[in-house]
Amino acid sequence: MDKTLCQYHPTQPATWQCSPCQRHFGDCCIPLNADAPDDAPACPLCRSPLTFLGAANTAQPFWERLPQFFAYALQTGPLAFAALLALASLFMPRSLILWVALLSVATKYFHSVIEASSEGRREAPSLMEAFTGEGFSLFFKQMAVFLVALGALWLAADFDSEVVFWGMNIAIVLLLPASIIRLALSRELGAALSPDQVGEVIRAMGWRYLILCAFLFILWQSPGYVAWMLASGLPKVVLMPVATFLFGYFGVVMCSMMGYAVFQYQGALGFAIAEEGAQVGLPEQEWRRRRALADAEIRLKEGQSDGALETLAKALQRDPEDLRLNERYHQLLFGLGARERCLQHLTHYLPLVARQNPALAATALLNARQLQGDYLPDDALVCEQVATALLERHRVREALSLLRNLHQRFPDYPHIPRAYLLAARGFAEGLGQLDPARKLLAYIRARHPASPLLDQVAALEETLGRLEGVRR
Ligand SMILES: [Zn+2]
Ligand SMILES: [Zn+2]
């Protein structure tokens, strides 16, 4: 099964689907609201509720996670479980009922590991889960499955043909994991023996099911081999609990792998579970902004530029001061060449962006000038702030045009000396024009003799004098 990707971001795995629109969306396109976590998100295009795909496209393949399965079985729950088996093998009396009870507890624990892993949980079930709740009948169902397998093998042995016998052996090795997974998920003997339902598990994984079987086969042999290697050195009284402990440990490793394989192929198996911690909701305000931005981007990529503008305009009605939304709206209007609307929006956007991000304001002004060659903001402070940012970008002429005749355009503006000092620097340092610079400084001295900036005026005059000396 190939991974499905976000329709609009081909590097992002899909996590949501809209059936009417036949579109897949990644988390990139569908931000979640932390204040309303139970609300199913709506399709950005048609507003019908989206279908969650869970981790079907995001889960790491099980063959890349082998160390994690061994680590999984080293948690307290599995270790306590393996220790319990080891102790029982040492001290438990030889009573059939007690052994059946122990094996049913073990079966229940193994199945709860498969179940927990299939739901993407990283924490192993505690030992208590082996003793509490329902599911003890699982042991008998599991035994029934094993008996059916043994019966099939016995029948095959009757044929007196090596080929038939080994064929049956291989078939059982290949079918058993899928059957165990089925039983763990549905807890029904019928499902575990139904060729259809077992086949569904195998079909969902495709040929990679063979990888799973190979790993499980190796793991199944492992405790035996380890015990065999230890056999020569250890007395039987020690060997028995060690072998039982290893059986418990490797059993949990195998079950966590089977469970995770189900988690990984959840999409094909027809259910959807998110990975722990994968879904993070955003605070309401941030969520509204991100959704508007994502929706606008999707509409734009669908070729619905009017829809994109509408989305942003609506979001701006709610949050008129949101810089990010305003910036995107401006970019979109400018990019689409919507001249009138863009100029109209600039009267609101430019003061806002000049306050919060002057560099961005400089870009907006240069855009405005492309739409209207003599564009001037109708606020003196905005002119001054944007001029400062433009000077930093060495756009001297554009900066100076914002400051030209400022005292006539805004007679009440209290920061004329500061603005003209800036303009004088622009002329002198940016354009190398000393005369206009000196005139501006003279204007400050004449009209604002009490200005606290006179020190800086004097310093700049001195620099101008020195520059002139160098030129002569
Ligand atoms: Zn996306
Ligand atoms: Zn839709």
Q: How is this structure best described in words?
A:
The protein has helices spanning 66-72, 76-91, 96-118, 138-157, 162-186, 189-193, 195-205, 208-231, 236-264, 266-269, 284-301, 305-318, 323-335, 339-356, 358-371, 380-392, 396-403, 406-409, 416-431, 434-447, 454-471; strands spanning 14-18, 23-26, 32-33, 51-52, 281-282. With 472 residues, the chain is mainly alpha-helical. It has a domain at 63-269. The strands form two sheets. It has a three-stranded antiparallel beta sheet, with no helix packed on it. The protein has a two-stranded parallel sheet with strand order 3-5. A hairpin with a 4-residue loop joins β1 and β2. α14 (339-356) crosses α16. It is elongated. The site of one zinc ion (ZN) has 7 residues, from loops. Residues 18, 20-21, 43, 45-46, 48 line the site of one zinc ion (ZN). It comes from Metapseudomonas furukawaii (Pseudomonas furukawaii). Keywords: Membrane, Transmembrane, Transmembrane helix. The chain crosses the membrane at residues 69-90, 96-114, 135-157, 163-185, 206-231, 237-263. InterPro entries: TPR-like_helical_dom_sf.
